[in-house]
Amino acid sequence: MNVYSDINCIKGVGPKTKKLLEECGINTIMDLLIYFPRDYKQFTNCISFKEGKDKEEIILRATVKDIKKDVRTKNGKNISTIIFSNEEENIKCKWFNQSYIKNSFVLNEEYTLKGKINIYKGEKILLNPKVIKSTPINENESIEPIYSLKEGLKNTTISKLIAEALNNIEVEENLPKWILEKHSFISLDKAIRNIHFPENKALLYEGRKRLKYQELFTYSLKTNMLKSVRNNNKGISFNISSSLNDLKKQLPFDLTNAQSKALREILTDQKKDIIMNRLVQGDVGSGKTIIAIISSFNVIMNGYQVAFMAPTEILAHQHYEETTKILKNFNLNIKLLCGSTTSKEKEIIKKEIKEGTVHMVIGTHALLEDNVEFNNLGFVITDEQHRFGVMQRSKLINKGKKVDSLVMTATPIPRTLSLYLFGDLDVSVIDELPPGRQKINTYFIKSSEKERAYSFALKQINEGRQVYIVCPLVEDNESLDLTSVENLYEEVKKYFNEIPISILHGKMPPKEKNNIMDLFKKGEIKVLISTTVIEVGVNVPNATLMIIENAQRFGLAQLHQLRGRVGRGDKKSYCILIGEIKSDITKRRMESIVNSNDGFFIAEQDFKLRGGGEIFGFKQHGEEEFILSNIIDDIELFKSANEDAKSLWESNNLLDKNIINYILNKLDRDSRYICFN
Ligand code: ADP
Ligand code: MG
Entry's PANTHER family (predicted)? Predict the structure, then answer.
């Protein structure tokens, strides 16, 4: 067995478990080892049951005194009761629907129990406690890892499999010695063991730190690599086409100064014979798409093809529509390629791309597929960059030779962070909104005042406008997300009677999503209830009200992006945040979004106010490169990882060069923990 062995070489993995594991993305031992707990349960080591509070999780040792007869409740539940005792008191334990539980206990034997205190009608019980096998209470038994699970898969199963794998494997160290020493890191093997089975809190912390560093270091190596590849290769030198003037004359609006400046920077890059690698950062609604279209046009006029990739089908459609509209008089062959494109159409489009008759293709991840081959790719644009990993970006770039690359993001990233995050990119900023945009009036109300928001929504609809309602996001759990949209739908339906409402969520087939978005765009749907699917880029100027439920759960930057879905036309727009304020930080966060419409300011605030894990929403964005680390909280670690990666990359030390080669050879295999052996 080694880390690349198939998961079924572990004892106890039959076809059924294998399938469940595969659904969690676990195919090999390595996948299993880096399936890190999403959280840990902390148990209070409590000897005194008496002092335990309601809902507190405790561990205690006690002896079985009495095993009661099972009772059946009116609604058919089976309750088993066992009375335990220790020196001080009696402890009543109850289990629901586990009649077999009695068989695991013997009268007068002592057990270590772990469970939750429950006080019901004045009676204090331990509910559904579990027995811990080993006799003494160790410190490690009070930290229990919790894994993200798919239905049918138990937490204990994952734990057991990992334990079994770690019994057979020692994970080889993969960082150079000088890095380990510099940071006093524990070994990779020890880190992996402790993240799954913490010996104690301190080692859990050390383990997590080591592995967080691993992510950030790997990421930084990649950006360093991309940067040097680019600097060492000559790019295409595009001419500035005279047709650009014709296009500019036909634009439906004048570019803002900020747009013109960004466009100039891009065209200057295009003209140079080095490879362009530029990031356009611009607040929501600042008009990035038009910049992408104009610069694409210049590349097409030079006889090269353009690929424009968006993170969702909805966005790809939208870009496609806007592009074909803007370029309609130039007789260009522009195609849309998405997952939901029929296979027959796909074949035709791919053939045309390969033959070079397609000038520009707009699409989703579908563009990354191996069989999408270009005749003469010259320019790649990725929208909302943080949704795509660095490696995905380079995959598209590699479909051409010396391709220029432009990435666009609406997430205003504080300067310090963008230095590490986009170390390989030059940055243009569009810090101005098109004229005539009004401030989006933003309000915060408590959940108990919800009805006010809905009656305001009705008023807007009666005036012919449309409304978004965004639902609380449930982290890491798509099926829960789904229930929360559906519940919200049931809840708000009654306020809107005959008005057409629809749900939109991530689990819908893309066709259905597009369909609903189309109806919403056409104004046939008045209220759209959705998860954060709509967060990025969607443009429906007639929507003037955004209601966000459980607003305190979102990162500020994310709230700002959501809010940016309204205020896209010339009509006064509003955003109502509904939520609960339980801490001072939450209060200040909500204040900064209510009081400001400036994405960059908000991002800085978010950065400063960072309160426990509710920041920025990078994880929610699916930035797969960072599983453990939070690039905001771990900024210092990110900084040193970046410095280390840079000096490793630039070093002339042969040993270090070997490490780099080794890492590069593994890049395709696993982008995150590439340096496993
Ligand atoms: P984002 O930067 O969020 O991607 P978009 O490119 O979707 O923004 O632009 C938002 C809206 O503003 C679009 O409807 C677009 O046509 C419009 N727009 C872009 N630039 C200008 C401009 N200079 N003047 C007026 N409207 C503009
Ligand atoms: Mg956009």
Answer: ATP-DEPENDENT DNA HELICASE HOMOLOG RECG, CHLOROPLASTIC (PTHR47964:SF1)
